[in-house]
Amino acid sequence: MANLSIGEGFIFTLLRLRNYVEPMGLLNDVASRGASGAKKIVGSRGSKPPRYSAAGLIAKGLRGESWPRVWRDVPLRSAYDVIIVGGGVHGLATAYYLATNHGITNVAVLDKAYLGSGGSGRNTAIVRSNYLTPEGVAFYDRSLALYNSMTDDLNINVMFSERGHLTLAHSDSALRTMHWRAEVNKLQNIDSSVIDPQQVKEIVPSLNVSSDAHHPIAGALYHPPGGIIRHDAVVWGYARGADHHGVEMHQKTEVLDIVCTGGEGPDGKGRGGKVTGVRTNRGDVSAPIVVNCTAGWATLISDMAGVRLPITTQPLQAAVTEPVKVFLPAVVVSGSLHVYVSQTDRGELVFGAAVDPFTNYNVRGSLDFTEGLAGHILELMPGVSKMRLLRQWAGLCDMTPDYSPVMGFTPVDGFLCDVGWGTYGFKAGPVAGEQMAECIATQRTPKLIEAFKLGRFEAGRLVGEKGAAAVGH
Amino acid sequence: MTQSHRLNPQPGEVIDRSAPLNFTWNGKRLTGFQGDTIASALMANGVEVVSRSMKYHRPRGYMTADFWDPNGFVQVGDEPNVRSGHRQLTSGITVDPQNVWPSLDYDVKAANGLVGRFLSAGFYYKTFMKPAALWPAFEKVLATFAPGGSVDLDSTPGYYDKRYSHPDVLVAGGGPAGMAAAIAAAESGARVMLVEHEHQLGGHLRWGSTADQASARQLAESVAAAGVEVLTDSTVTGRYEDSWVAVSQRSHAHAVERLIKARAKVLIVAPGLIERPYVFAGNDKPGVMLSGAVRRSIAMYATRPGSRAVVFSGNADGDAAAIDLERVGVDVAAVIDARSGANIVEAHGGAKRVSSVELADGSSIDADLLVVAAGWTAPTSLLNMAGDRPVYDASCARFFPSATIDNVLSCGGIAGDGNFDEIVAHAQATGRLAAERAAAVQHRLQARTARSAPVEFAEPAWPADVRSPLGRDAHPELFQSSTVGMVDFSEDVSSKDLVLAAKEGYDSVELLKRFTTATMGPSQGKLETVNTVAVLADARGETIEEVGTTVWRPPYAPISLGGLAGRMFNPHRVSSIHPWHESNGQIPIQVAAWERPEHYGNPAGEVTNTRTNVGIIDVSPLGKLDLRGPDVPKLLNLLYTNKWSKLPIGGVRYGLMCAEDGVVLDDGVTGRLGEHHYLMTTTSSGAARVWEWAENWLQTEHPDWQVHITPVTTALSSINIAGPKSRELLSRLTSIDLSREAFPYMTLRTGIVAGIDDCIMWRIGFTGELSYEVHVPSGYGLHVWQALIDAGADLGVAPFGLEAQRIMRLEKGHFIVGQDTDGLTLAVSAGVASLIKLDKDDFVGKTELAWALADRMHELPQVVAIQTAAPTVVPTEATQIVRPGTNEILGRITSSRMSPTLGRSICMGQVPSSLAAGGTALELVLVPDGRRVAATVLDTHAHFDPEGARLRA
Fold it and tell me: Are residues B150 and B232 in the same domain?
């Protein structure tokens, strides 16, 4: 974290954000429309689409039929109640919960590429709730609960594989931190404990637990409810669910500008302004509420409304091997070696790492990442030296100074953010969507995300011990 | 089984018939020849089924019989996923099929094929949902379908290596174009590396006419004569930023695989073309082969791919395959000429092999071999990695590079078509252009490099690309999705799967890929992408160009984890005094890379001896940075929270460092050795981090400051001499006046210790005792240590380890950064308020700390000393402090020990400010039984000698 915001970035950003006041009462019109909005759904599906099931598969197979579109392909209209910029897990979950929990369905989700093309499709799909702070535990436990019931809620098999999550400790001091986490977790009724190297070996036989390893495994924090999930299915599930309630998904629809009025900046943007809509590559669309749910481009989108964010963008790289027979039963994370690994049901090892140590919009990936990754993996699991790396990629992470997101209202009336999710956005997707939907619908900041307001940077209250999602450890 | 399908000697064969090799396949003993690939040896022995497909377990034979063959994966010993079409046969290897159960010939999971209509792509998203409790069981079953071989978890990595290289021109591809380009570049004065994926140079000439083969030999000789470095069986796996090119060398004499990292000034991409499969019913049956595979089998390996063939030909290579087959006595039943509109509909056959081919006109021809020549795919990966977006040309039915990238050129089939002379002429022009551009890049690099005499002559003009482009041969667009055939053979994804998925809304190429997994298998789309795009284009009623392709990502060909890791260097750090510790009963502990004595058998006794007599500890792992320059005080003022401008020469000061967010980063002591010379110590684990941190501030924010930092952690061995008799002990080894007046607390002296010059001594006291820390040139560390032991026998000198030091510092109330503080602990929480000087102009973290001090102190935790009510209860570190009677977490114990000095348990912990006052009662939840016990906060951090009388003695 040390290199994040040297010099200009951090302190200056704080200064620029001074005098920020949370706007009050901006959503009267939409809130009052909430209930009626459900009645006047525009472009809603006429009939209930068929549920996914084995019986359905057999019936379709026998008749050689295809399934209906997972989400509709409808023309972009000129006005919506809410425009969500970014068709990833966060944007789609926000749209889904707006529709299902609050009856706000006149909503468009815009994505400049295809749904799930950003971080949602590039992450390594690990979910867990064994965080360090009680607030973090509560936040992510809610997310894990939503993931747990997601297959049922969304009627799509998101293949949540509750396989156990091991965070390895390679030193005395790391082990001490694991104990700390375990004790916090236990008091929160989270299944989490510290296990010794022999127990580690029993759970993951491929790990080298010998004491003469370069980074010997001193123990691990074991979190049985952690696991992996099919991230694309989560995206498609939310999109399909939102679509069923009338929300529109528009791909290849790039937001080029956000139209504001009354603000102190150029073109009516900035503090004191009010959003009236967006300009896209497919035409102008008006809406009283625009929500920035992007990652990698969060600052560029917010700039369009004249809202500056204390965010820097850094790539996070990942890679996958050729498949082999399944041998790795749990998710293994090593903080000191900057690597995490799991094996998919297809047999591939999926690797991730820490963010690149510099700001960059490049998602091509680097050679030295794969070299370092392979070295660390072989230190942990010498038996996989003959496996081959098949593909590498990178995603963009929007990093904030306190490793916590920026959620909720901004100095521009009607412009909201759910951004700055760093390396942990996927894990938080469902709960973030749920909370953002509540924020939009009730025009109040829900308690669970109170700590993540943009205003904290001006007030000097960086999220730390109070932060529900801080993952500094 | 004899080599029943081996032909008579062929003019260009690469096998050595005088060198037979034995191997086993699927438990059977077989023989091949030196030069065979595993696949060619299997084919020569009449093996028809090599593998079974992933999902439906359909039998598969040889389709491309080269590196990219999706059907050719085998297990060789403990190595999974070996490409049988590429890997050369070696004596005695054990080769087995993968992904079969119970056997290759009879596979139970082939029953999946019968229910295939229900298992459309992505079927698993739509089922196994109820009952939820059964999903884990379903998941286990699904996991048994994971394709691929098996890893032997007990195998140890072989010898892998790396190499750096700086060629002027690197040529990817050793066919005629690549060779001609390499020769021309070398003859123009460039240093050239030529990398060929296959085992021989020559590309497609290797299986061409006698004249082709002669041309290949001639070019290869010229390559050698031109001084080009040639790597065969090696692949350019990636082109990264700044022309950083990765080469996986599989042909190294000693290394299993070697990763060559080349900073190529210019990259020439000349990989040729990859033959594309054709989509039709039954296109994955054994006996359906691409034309190149057939021609290679005959010309290079002298194997007979079948006995009666139908050839579906859309180009000259298909025609040539028919001629080759007839030449070696295979009956060519028909040539179906796609150029005249003729078409095949389905390959029929039994479980093992094609038996007849159904044509579009309804007729059917008996054959056991169907040869397909449906066109080419340009493997543009390396160009894509450099930023190129290939453009589809419908008249040629393939993609071509779009833009020209300054230092990435292409030639050969990827760039266009032509006869041999045209291809070579274009490649030569490419090689010359590459050499000229490399020279320009060379000049640029030299001019940018700091040197005493600047490069004076002007940068040469960037050599323009004046090559005449190659022509493009027309080729029919042979794409169809009317009949259901395999599009992705590795993933068992058919054209029907793709059409259904597109109808369901997964209708952009990336969504389609993710939903169906098409192109995600081992060949990463080299065979599959264009057909996938074509099917999607058809389903959407668009052109291939409109649909576009997926992004090609590195690596071009898979590379082993061993190869990427290279040699595993595992530095094991010990101090120069380590031999003494080893022979004197140390119990070691690993701290970061360092091995240190945790204790010598009795840590409590070590504490008592130090507090009573004198103890010495090896603290060499302390991070040490030598700082020189007039602006060092500015740097210290920036990095530390306290003030440094007035530190006198000979003075020593403790400092605390914060990150910008005010969180404690590191701490240590810095002493001033001279006018512009300081020695900074850091925590042992923070040594590298602090160096980087300081350099980062200097280089990015204050490049004008005159400060030079040299890390000297291992140049100096450090010994702390602590205890009431430490002055007496040290005085026996040095003439420096150690008296309280001459050498007071928090000062330093330099001079001779135990006969060793240039020692630095400073009076500080982490243990709370009178103590001296001596830094000696590390070559003499052991000598000084031994001298201390020898000189102090009558004083009761004894070594103490890390554990005794930790006990004593806890007794004394010194926190350890990273243990008693954490990633969220602000400096204002650490109980060192006097060290935070907000009246300084600036320091890292000042803004945050000022805010915190102004209005957040009530909500921040504090580091405090804590004692349990029961003196014998030592709460484990990480024990939680809770609101009495509840599970509400208020704080935690960060350090705890039984104090030998006080005879009771002592702790340090973090509590909310409201509970930080001395005498506050706390409730602890003990580990592991959850028992709750009472404890009290102390007035000061120190459990022992809070006034510091001992260390100032």
Answer: no
